[in-house]
Design a protein that fits this description.
215 residues, alpha+beta, Pnp Oxidase, Chain A, 9-stranded antiparallel β-sheet, 5 helices, globular
Length: 215
C-alpha cells in the first residue's frame, strides 16, 4: 500500500515550531530526502568571516563548467547579502566530527561576530575568489556568483548559482573509494522526516555514507 500526500498540508501534521510550514513546504518532511551538509564561507561588510551551515543544494556541470546550486538561502541572511556584494563564496565540506562546532556559528551570527572563531575554525583565504576558507575542510570549492534569483515569485528564499573556480582536497580524501564516502567524509542532513500516519516528526538526524558496491 502507498500513501499519497497532496499539495495541501494534511490537517493531522503536527507543528513542531512556530512558522514551520511557512519556512518549509510540508513535502520537505514528507519526503525526507537527505542532502549534503556543508559550510558556506563569505565575508561580512565589515570584513569579518561569515559561516553559513547549510544543506538543500546540488552540484552539477558539463565540460569546463561546474556549478554549485545553493537553494533555500534566506534573503535576510548575511550570506545572501555577502554573495551579492562580493560575487564570491566558498563551499566547505567537513566531517560529522565538526557538526557541533558548525552549530555554534548559528548562535554567534551578529555583524560584529567572527563566526570562524565561534566555531573554532582556522580561517584561510581562497585564491581565486574573495571569500574565506575553513582550513579544516577536507574539500573546498571556490566559487564566483553566476546568478541569483527568487525560488518563485514572492519567495522568501533565493537560488544562488555559483561557478566553481577551484577545488582543494586533502590528500587522504583525494582518491576514488576513499574517506569522502565514510564516517570521515560527507555528512548529510535528514530533516525531521514525518510519520505520515501520526503526523509526528520532530527528530532530525545527521548521516554519513557507506559504499555498498564499486561498479
Amino acid at each position: 500500500m502507498k500513501i499519497a500526500i497532496n499539495e495541501q498540508k494534511p490537517e493531522h501534521f503536527r507543528v513542531s515550531w512556530e512558522g514551520q510550514y511557512e519556512v518549509f513546504s510540508h513535502f520537505e518532511f514528507v519526503c525526507g530526502i537527505p542532502s549534503a551538509l556543508f559550510a558556506i564561507g563569505t565575508y561580512k561588510k565589515n570584513g569579518k568571516p561569515n559561516v553559513c551551515f547549510h544543506a538543500w543544494s546540488a552540484f552539477q556541470g558539463e565540460g569546463d563548467g561546474y556549478y554549485v546550486i545553493l537553494a533555500g538561502i534566506s534573503k535576510n541572511c548575511h550570506t545572501y547579502k555577502n554573495v551579492l556584494r562580493d560575487k564570491s563564496f566558498t563551499v566547505n565540506f567537513l566531517s560529522k566530527d565538526y557538526y557541533d562546532a558548525l552549530i555554534k556559528t548559528i548562535f554567534h551570527n551578529k555583524d560584529e561576530d567572527n563566526e570562524f572563531l565561534a566555531g573554532g575554525f582556522t580561517a584561510g583565504k581562497a585564491e581565486t575568489v574573495n571569500a574565506p576558507v575553513i582550513e579544516e575542510s577536507f574539500l573546498t570549492l571556490e566559487c564566483e556568483l553566476a546568478e541569483a534569483r527568487d525560488l518563485f515569485l514572492g519567495s522568501r528564499t533565493v537560488l544562488i548559482l555559483g561557478k566553481a573556480k577551484r577545488a582543494v582536497l586533502e590528500d587522504s580524501h583525494a582518491h576514488r573509494a576513499d574517506k569522502k564516502y565514510g564516517p570521515e567524509g560527507f555528512m548529510f542532513n535528514i530533516h525531521s522526516p514525518i510519520d505520515l500516519k501520526t503526523g509526528e516528526g520532530e527528530v532530525s538526524a545527521v548521516a554519513t555514507m557507506k559504499i555498498e558496491k564499486l561498479v
